[in-house]
Amino acid sequence: MSSQTIILLCRERLISMAPRWKWALGFLSSCNVFLSEQAELLDRYCFGRLVFGAEKDKRWIQLSYEEAFFLFYKLKCIKISLHGRSLVNGVDLWRSIRSFKPNFTILYKAYSHLRSKN
The tRNA intron endonuclease N-terminal domain covers which part of the protein (predicted)? Predict the structure, then answer.
């Protein structure tokens, strides 16, 4: 199965579940992005790192900035908020991430290239 097929399957699966969970909402922090919804699905498709919470059933997915931007902008399957405010477009998210990680541009370019090659 090609990398493009895998990425499209992931996107379709996340979007098909949208009516039930109204898009996965990630929270932007100073070093990464956390999502509680669809953590296991994202982990299955090799996005982020699965983190277990204090509660037995609570799982989070910890995404790098590059992974989060890819899911937000390229696949359009997650939403991201900063300080309780939803970032609605790629420019706002890009600027916010760049304020935390100045070398994000080159790292995202490399990540997106490698992700497309799987």
Answer: 26-94
